[in-house]
Backbone:
C-alpha cells in the first residue's frame, strides 16, 4: 500500500513539484499526475473524481463531481503505487452501496482505467460511470447535437426536449448498439474525452449485443457516460460481478482505438477480474443467414454475455469465462437459431450453428424480418429524434404493393395519433384461398399490438405482449422482446383483384405518442405466387 502520509510533504509543495508519474495526497484528496498530460484528483471521503486537468486546462464540470451514478456516498478510499510505481490504483469501496470502484493510471498515458465491482442492484436501478465535464471546453456531444438540450424545453418527462425550430433532443438519442459501441466521446477545439469499452468490457452488463443506452448529454455541463446496467427498455435481469475494465482517455481531438490492452489488471488485485488464462472460446460456422444481412452470434447465461459477427460464415468468440451458455444466431437482430455450448478454460470449443428460419412462399412482403425497422418510413430517423420531431415524415399512410417502397410504410403505429396503415394488394384467382398474415414487431409500449382487417374480416386480438415498463420509441429505442403475430385469413375475406389490409393498434395508454404503440419489423401475406 502506498502510504499517503509518507508523500504528504510532496503534496504540500504544490502542483509545480509534480514533474513525473506520481501520486500525492492531502487530507481530502488523492492526486495523480500521469505524466501524459492528464492530472486528476479523487475525493478521499467518497471516491468522487473532482478534477481533470489535461494539458493545463481544467475539464471537470462546475456543478457536480464525476464518478459512479450520482456518487457512492461515504466510502473507504485507498491509494497505492504498484510494481515500483508502474501503476497507481485508487480503490473506493462504498459503505452504503454494493459497489467497489477502481481508478488506475499508467505512466505517460492520459487515460483513467477503471473497473466497477457490484454484488447487487444499485438504487435507483441503474449503474453508470458519468463524467461531468465543462461544456464550454467540450461542447460537442456524441452524435452532435441530438442530446443538446440548451435553450430547449422539456415536454415529455424531464429528459425529452423540444426546441424552437421543432426539433427534439434527448440524451437517449446519443446511444449506439453495444456490439458497435466500443469508443464514444465528447469534443472541443483543444481536446476530446473518450469512453473506451475494450474487449469483453460488456460481459457483466445486461441486454445483449443490440442493447443501447445513454452516451452523453449536453447542458450546463457536458455529460459523458458509460451505462453498465439500467432499466431503459430492460429485457433481462442485472448481472453481478466486475464491470469492465473500461477507460476514459483524453486526446487532442483524435478518436482512440478500441484495441486497449487491459491485461495488466491481472496484476492489480481487482476483485472479480478473470485473466485470459482462465477463459476459453468458441469457434465454428454460422450458416443460413442470407447475404445482405449480418450474422451475429450471441452467448449468455446469468453471469456473463458475449457476441461476435461472423465473417464469410465463420466466427470465433471473445475470450469467455468458463461455463455453459445459451448460444443464439441472429439475421441482423432477428433470432434464427438457438443452441447451447459449454466453454472450458484454456480451450477453444468447436460449435456450429445454422439458421432454422422458415422461408414460406409469399404474395407480398413489406420490409425485412431482421429485427430492425430501419428500412421503413421514419426508421432512418427514430434513433436520433422524437416521433413528433419536425423532420419526421407523417405517420400512418397507404402502401400499394408493386408500386410503393418500404419507406412508404410506417415503422411504428400509435393508438391515438398518426392513423392506421393500409396496404392495397391484388390477388389472382389462384390466390383467393386461405392465406396467412404475419406481422413482426420489435417493441411494444402500453400493451400495443396489431389489429388487422381485410374487407369484412377482422383478425382476433392476440392479447397484450409482455410489458416492458419503460418508454421506448419516443426515446429512440426500437428493440424489446419482439413478437411474431400470425392470423389465418379465410378465402371468404378475399377477392380476385384489389384487396385492402388495414393495420391498427389494440391498446390505449396515454395521449398521442405515449398511447399504446408498437414498432414494426416486417409484414407479409403468405401464399402462392400468382
Residues:
Amino acid at each position: 500500500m502506498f502510504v499517503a502520509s509518507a508523500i504528504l510533504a510532496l503534496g504540500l509543495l504544490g502542483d509545480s513539484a509534480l514533474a513525473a508519474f506520481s501520486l500525492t495526497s492531502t487530507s481530502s484528496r488523492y492526486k495523480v499526475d500521469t505524466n501524459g498530460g492528464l492530472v486528476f484528483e479523487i475525493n478521499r471521503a467518497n471516491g468522487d473524481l473532482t478534477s481533470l486537468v489535461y494539458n493545463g486546462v481544467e475539464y471537470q464540470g462546475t456543478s457536480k463531481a464525476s464518478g459512479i451514478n450520482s456518487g457512492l456516498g461515504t466510502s473507504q478510499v485507498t491509494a497505492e503505487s504498484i510494481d515500483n510505481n508502474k501503476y497507481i490504483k485508487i480503490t473506493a469501496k462504498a459503505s452504503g452501496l454494493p459497489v467497489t470502484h477502481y481508478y488506475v493510471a499508467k505512466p505517460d498515458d492520459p487515460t483513467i482505467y477503471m473497473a466497477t465491482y457490484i454484488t447487487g442492484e444499485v438504487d435507483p436501478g441503474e449503474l453508470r460511470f458519468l463524467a461531468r465535464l465543462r461544456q464550454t471546453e467540450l461542447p460537442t456531444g456524441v452524435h452532435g447535437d441530438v442530446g443538446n438540450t440548451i435553450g430547449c424545453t422539456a415536454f415529455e418527462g424531464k429528459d425529452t426536449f423540444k426546441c424552437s425550430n421543432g426539433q427534439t433532443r434527448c440524451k437517449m438519442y446519443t446511444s449506439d448498439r453495444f456490439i458497435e459501441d466500443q469508443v464514444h466521446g465528447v469534443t472541443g477545439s483543444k481536446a476530446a474525452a473518450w469512453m473506451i469499452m475494450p474487449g469483453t468490457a460488456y460481459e457483466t452488463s445486461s441486454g445483449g449485443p443490440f442493447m443501447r443506452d445513454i452516451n452523453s448529454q449536453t447542458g450546463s455541463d457536458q455529460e459523458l457516460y458509460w451505462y453498465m446496467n439500467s432499466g431503459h427498455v430492460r429485457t433481462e435481469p442485472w448481472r453481478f460481478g466486475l464491470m469492465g475494465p473500461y477507460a476514459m482517455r483524453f486526446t487532442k481531438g483524435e478518436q482512440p482505438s478500441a484495441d486497449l490492452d487491459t491485461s495488466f489488471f491481472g496484476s492489480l488485485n481487482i476483485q472479480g477480474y478473470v485473466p485470459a488464462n482462465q477463459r476459453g472460446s468458441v469457434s465454428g460456422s454460422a450458416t443460413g443467414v442470407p447475404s445482405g444481412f449480418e450474422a451475429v452470434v450471441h452467448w449468455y447465461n446469468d453471469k456473463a454475455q458475449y457476441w461476435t459477427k461472423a465473417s464469410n460464415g465463420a466466427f470465433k468468440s471473445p475470450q469467455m469465462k468458463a461455463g455453459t451458455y445459451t448460444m443464439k444466431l441472429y439475421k441482423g437482430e432477428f433470432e434464427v437459431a438457438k443452441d447451447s455450448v459449454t466453454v472450458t478454460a484454456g480451450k477453444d470449443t468447436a460449435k456450429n450453428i445454422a439458421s432454422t428460419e422458415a422461408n414460406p412462399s409469399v404474395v407480398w412482403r413489406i420490409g425485412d424480418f431482421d429485427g430492425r425497422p430501419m428500412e421503413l418510413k421514419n426508421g432512418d430517423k427514430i434513433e436520433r429524434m422524437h416521433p413528433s420531431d419536425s423532420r419526421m415524415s407523417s405517420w400512418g399512410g397507404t402502401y400499394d404493393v408493386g408500386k410503393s417502397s418500404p419507406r412508404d410504410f410506417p415503422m411504428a403505429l400509435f393508438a391515438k395519433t398518426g392513423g392506421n396503415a393500409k396496404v392495397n394488394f391484388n390477388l389472382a384467382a389462384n390466390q383467393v384461398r386461405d392465406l396467412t398474415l404475419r406481422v413482426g414487431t420489435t417493441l411494444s409500449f402500453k400493451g400495443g399490438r396489431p389489429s388487422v382487417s381485410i374487407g369484412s374480416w377482422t383478425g382476433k386480438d392476440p392479447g397484450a405482449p409482455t410489458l416492458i415498463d419503460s418508454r421506448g420509441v419516443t426515446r429512440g429505442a426500437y428493440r424489446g422482446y419482439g413478437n411474431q403475430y400470425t392470423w389465418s385469413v379465410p378465402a371468404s375475406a378475399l377477392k380476385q383483384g384489389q384487396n385492402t389490409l388495414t393495420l391498427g393498434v389494440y391498446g390505449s395508454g396515454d395521449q398521442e405518442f405515449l398511447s399504446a404503440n408498437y414498432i414494426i419489423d416486417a409484414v407479409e401475406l403468405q401464399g402462392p405466387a400468382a
Notes: Confidence is low (pLDDT under 50) at residues 1-18. The radius of gyration is 26 Å.
